[in-house]
Each structure stands twice: as structure tokens, then as C-alpha cells.
Design brief:
By secondary structure, this protein is an all-alpha fold. It is about 75% helix and about 0% strand. The longest helix is centred in the last third of the chain and has 33 residues.
Length: about 300
């Protein structure tokens, strides 16, 4: 080996050793979030959290501060008695119980019915199954407002107004979006599970109830929570189908909290709205990981 070859190797070796380190530095630089990322996150946080903070501040003001111009952001003195008035000026607990009953009943039924339909589309064989599944997905494109009047007429003719039976029937009818979630998840499970159960003599209902349903816990929880929050926050259906004694908390908040002249007291109404929103926020805070798991699981197989 000549001295020229040795000197060439000596010059190339350090450069070769430095290359992986440079690549690591570049890779780490790409992974580090930039200042614009933090700015975007803060802007989105303010966009979503801002209205709720404004509502809380409004609930701590007096009616004069609410109507004053220019608008004051912070109250001069926090009016915590607005929350007490929101609880006592109407049967807040009773209406909250109505909302809880309606939302829980609907959520349990629609979760189970959607799981059963999704299982059928995922694991059972039938002619025209794919075409029927596309029809089910197409119903998600229909705005709910279009079916509102026919639904009201139908329930009125069969005598179900001022009852909670419409939510029971809606729950038994399944939800296209939930059916899609369950179908995607059940399609990703190995076929050996049902084959082994069939060999042991299990029927399809037993396979669904004892094998597939327990495995779909993230989807079950997500379906229940989405349905619960949607029903808890629904205003149109209770206002259309229920009278004031049987209605839910969403409708009652807009109907009460008036002064002797019949004018709405906005600060007490804001306090009631804050207490109305808090349960949904707590539910999402403790169950947000299931939303992520369900989205990942439902996207495994198309």
C-alpha cells in the first residue's frame, strides 16, 4: 500500500464517520416543533376555549355589567350567587335527570344496535351486502333537518308525542356512522376467532356477544360517549316532541330565568349553561384516549 493510499483513507475516514452524525442532527431538527407550530396550537386553543371562558366570565357578572358599553371582560365582583339562582329558580336537577335518562337510554341502545349491524356487515355473508352497506353510508349525507318534519308527523300519528319512546326507537335503528366504525373494527379481527367458535358449536349471536363485543371495548365506549354528548346537547328534538314538564335541560335553560317583566336574565342563563356544559367536558377529559384508539382501530381495514 502506498503512502498516497494511506493519506487518502485518512482523509475519507473522518468524513465518513461524520456523515451519520450529520444525518442524526438533521433528523432531530426535522422532528423538533417550530415556533409556528406552537403559535398554531395556541391559536386553536384560544379559538376553542375562548367561548367557554367568555361564558364563565359572563356568568360571574351582574345584568348591568352584561349590558354595559363598552363591554368589560372581567366582572368587578364575582357574582357566585348566579350559580345558586340557576339551581333554585327552576327544577335544574329534575331537568338534568330527564336529559340523563334520555341520553343514557339512547346511547346504550344505539351502541348495541350499531355493533350488531356492523358485525353483520363485517363477518356474515349475504348477496348484495356491499351494495347495502353503501346505502347505509349514503344515509349519512342526508341532513337531519330534512327528516325532522316527517318524523314529527309520524310520531304524532302513532301517539308518541310527550313520551321518551322516540329516543328508544331511534336507538334501536342504529347509526350509520357507528355502524361504519364497528364494521371496520370487526373486519380487522382474524377469521380464526369465529372458526374456532363455530367448531365448538357456538352460534353467530354467541360469537358476537362473547367474542367480538368484548374485543371492541374502545369502539363501544366511543360510540356511547359520542351518542351521549350528542343527545345531551340536542335542543331541536326535545323542543319539538316534549312538553315543558318532560323536556330536557337544554330546552329548559332557554325557557326559564326571566324577570317579572318576562325578560331573560342573561347572567343566570349563562351560569346554567356553564353547569350544563361541565359534565360533557369531564366525560371527554377522562375518555379521550378511547377516541384515539377507536379511530386507529376503525382505520385498519377497509
Amino acid at each position: 500500500m502506498t503512502m498516497e493510499d494511506t493519506s487518502t483513507r485518512a482523509m475519507v475516514a473522518p468524513a465518513a464517520r461524520r456523515t451519520p452524525r450529520r444525518r442524526n442532527v438533521l433528523t432531530n431538527a426535522k422532528k423538533r416543533p417550530t415556533a409556528w407550530t406552537y403559535i398554531l396550537i395556541l391559536a386553536l386553543t384560544a379559538f376553542f376555549v375562548g367561548p367557554f371562558i367568555w361564558l364563565v366570565l359572563a356568568a360571574l357578572k351582574t345584568p348591568a355589567e352584561w349590558a354595559s358599553l363598552p363591554i368589560s371582560i372581567l366582572p368587578e365582583e364575582a357574582q357566585w350567587n348566579n350559580f345558586v339562582s340557576a339551581l333554585t329558580d327552576m327544577n335544574f336537577i329534575g331537568y338534568a335527570g330527564n336529559s340523563l335518562f334520555v341520553a343514557t337510554t339512547y346511547s346504550v341502545l344505539i351502541t348495541l344496535s350499531s355493533a350488531a349491524v356492523g358485525f353483520g356487515f363485517a363477518r356474515l355473508r349475504a348477496p348484495g351486502k356491499k351494495a347495502l352497506f353503501m346505502v347505509v353510508l349514503a344515509t349519512m349525507m342526508i341532513p337531519q333537518i330534512l327528516t325532522l318534519l316527517p318524523t314529527y308527523v309520524m310520531f304524532a300519528r302513532i301517539g308518541l308525542l310527550n313520551t321518551y319512546w322516540p329516543w328508544v326507537l331511534w336507538g334501536l335503528a342504529a347509526s350509520p356512522y357507528m355502524v361504519f366504525l364497528f364494521r371496520q373494527f370487526f373486519s380487522s379481527l382474524p377469521k380464526e376467532l369465529e372458526d374456532a367458535a363455530i367448531i365448538d358449536g357456538a352460534g353467530w349471536f354467541r360469537i358476537f356477544a362473547t367474542i367480538f363485543l368484548p374485543l371492541s371495548r374502545p369502539i363501544l365506549i366511543t360510540s356511547f360517549l359520542l351518542s351521549f354528548t350528542w343527545t345531551w346537547g340536542d335542543y331541536i328534538a326535545p323542543a319539538l316532541l316534549l312538553d315543558l314538564d318532560r323536556t330536557t335541560l337544554a330546552v329548559a335553560i332557554t325557557a326559564w330565568y326571566q324577570d317579572p317583566n318576562g325578560n331573560v336574565i342573561p347572567t343566570i342563563q349563562a351560569a346554567a349553561a356553564v353547569m350544563y356544559i361541565i359534565p360533557v367536558l369531564l366525560i371527554f377529559f377522562f375518555a379521550q384516549r378511547y377516541f384515539v384508539q377507536s379511530n386507529v382501530s376503525s382505520g385498519i381495514k377497509g
